[in-house]
Design brief:
Elements lengths: L3 H6 L1 H9 L7 H28 L6 H33 L18 E6 L10 H7 L3 E2 H8 L5 E2 L2 H19 L3 E3 L4 E2 L1 H6 L18 E2 L4 H7 L4 E2 L4 E10 L18 E11 L4 H19 L3 E5 L11 E9 L4 E10 L3 H6 L2 E4 L2 E4 L1 E9 L3 H8 L7 E2 L2 H7 L3 E2 L1
Parallel strand pairs: 4-8, 7-13
Antiparallel strand pairs: 1-10, 2-3, 5-6, 8-9, 9-15, 10-11, 11-12, 12-15, 13-14, 16-17
Helix pairs in contact: 3-4, 5-12, 7-13
The protein binds one RNA strand of 90 nucleotides through helix 3 and helix 4.
Length: 405
RNA sequence: GGUGGGGUGCCAGAGAGGCUGAAUGGGCCGCACUCGAAAUGCGGUAUGCCCGUAAGGGUAUCAGAGGUUCAAAUCCUCUCCCCACCGCCA
């Protein structure tokens, strides 16, 4: 949610920023609704002041008659205020976040590669689906039998490898003094609103019959962890593990067979609540952390600065880390690092206190990392001529094996 | 799932229709006393919104949403959460 006062004071600037993302907004309309709100509010509060004053002691019978009429007027005005506030909130909550200045304009094709690590290994021919099946790591068929397409079962060393990745991430974050949260997978509608996933992503989420939804990313949880709180000490650094659930309706493509896009995947997410002046610093820290994790695995990847229209709604800037998937000949996202500025904090009412005043914090999130694309990358990038796969050194202490054959 | 008891400021805890943004205690901050500290005394100590350059004023907020009333922390309805006991249970 954007600050109405900021819109009022910097209309041109905000408008320019928003128009990079969409043309579907009308700041003048929003401001005029706010004007109306203020006007009504002043009016009704004056009347309330009168009523409060006269009701302080028991009024005379005649006065009561008059106050009764006053009460009716107040009620109608109050209704109008409520409606105006509602429509203001509605308009405001579908506005996306403003974007950072250094974000390229346009769509995906303007994404800018800002770093490349390692280089493309020689591709030895087997894709990760074949490898996973040949080496008995993933059971796609039985996964689909149990849960439908888009689900798979990690099996034996495949499960160990998956778990090893998670343990590797967890140890890394703990070493960096991030606090480990293991949140519930189901959350309320209010929480999904705060994280910015509602109203936009309603159809991408799974819903239960009692109105809860499965998390699409643990960011949805951590962002709500401090909802309606005034934070004492900043920054607060967290990381969370959760399974993530996405409908991915209509987005399944043939080349994304295997584990590249599933309805359920594992992800560890870093999250920071920071002072407004420190959020870009934190952004760099998160990015470095995510990069270190992939580099620790020795995978070839690239860091990409996303163009405006490729950034999600609530975020001012996003950098993706994309790992090379040899069989597909493309890079696939394994981490997304974003700064939401105060956008989520406003929705969730998360503040901090400084010299007697409260202000909204900034929130940032970054995958650290999602596993479902790392395993394909590991299998394909590290496959050997004899059909085996080398396990990255960083994982040895967790897997107990160095090679899968 | 059932029954009962709760949810009040930073914390504990009163208040049970009108002068209550809210007693009292603790905490915290300031001042006095002290060489310093403790103890003691005095004062201060919520947030959103609206008007105002400001000082200040107004309004709302006692879990949340509605309602009754001239007037609600206090009465009514619904929802959520916490605690206790009972039932059920992979």
């Amino acid at each position: 949610m954007l600050d109405i006062n900021k819109i009022r004071d910097n209309k041109e600037e905000v408008g320019r920023s928003l128009s990079k993302r969409t043309t579907d907004f009308d700041l003048d309309e929003i401001l005029s609704i706010d004007d109306k709100r203020k006007e009504l509010l002043s009016k009704v509060e004056l009347l309330k002041a009168k009523r409060n004053k006269e009701s302080r002691q028991k009024p005379t019978p005649e006065a009561i008659l008059e106050l009764k009429k006053l009460g009716d007027t107040i009620k109608t005005l109050d209704d109008q205020v409520r409606q105006t506030e509602l429509s203001l909130k509605e308009k405001l909550s579908v506005l996306p976040n403003i974007v950072a200045d250094d974000v390229p304009e346009g769509n995906k094709e303007n994404n800018k590669v800002i770093k490349v690590f390692g280089k493309k290994p020689e591709f030895l021919g087997k894709n990760h689906v074949q490898l996973a099946q040949d080496l008995n790591l993933i059971d796609y068929e039985r996964g689909a039998k149990m849960s439908g397409s888009g689900f798979w079962v990690y099996k034996d060393r495949g499960a160990v490898l998956e778990w090893a990745l998670l343990n590797y991430f967890i140890d890394f974050h703990r070493k960096n003094k991030y606090v480990f949260l293991f949140p519930p997978y189901l959350l309320t509608e209010r929480s999904a609103f705060t994280s910015g996933h509602l109203p936009k992503f309603r159809d991408d989420l799974y819903w239960t019959q009692d109105g809860l939804c499965l998390d699409g990313t643990s960011e949805m949880m951590i962002g709500n962890y401090h909802r309606d709180e005034i934070l004492e000490k900043l920054p607060l650094k967290y990381f969370a593990y959760s399974a993530c659930f996405r409908k991915e309706a209509g987005s399944y493509r043939k080349e994304e067979r295997g584990m590249v896009r599933g309805h359920q995947f594992n992800k560890i997410e870093m999250f920071q609540f920071t002072h407004p002046e420190k959020s870009w610093e934190a952004f760099e820290e998160l990015r470095k952390n995510a990069e270190k994790l992939i580099e620790g695995l020795g995978l070839h990847y690239q860091t990409v600065l996303l163009a405006v229209q490729d950034i999600s709604f609530a975020m001012a800037k996003t950098i993706d880390l994309e790992v090379w998937i040899p069989s597909m000949g493309i890079y696939k996202e394994v981490s997304s690092i974003s700064n939401a500025l105060d956008y989520q904090a406003r929705r969730g009412n998360v503040k901090f206190r400084e010299s007697g005043k409260n202000d909204f914090v900034h929130t940032l999130n970054a995958s650290g990392l999602a596993t479902s694309r790392l395993i394909p990358a590991i299998l394909e990038q590290f496959q050997q001529k004899d059909g085996s796969v080398k396990v990255p050194r960083a994982l040895h202490k967790y897997t107990g094996f160095k090679k899968i054959k």
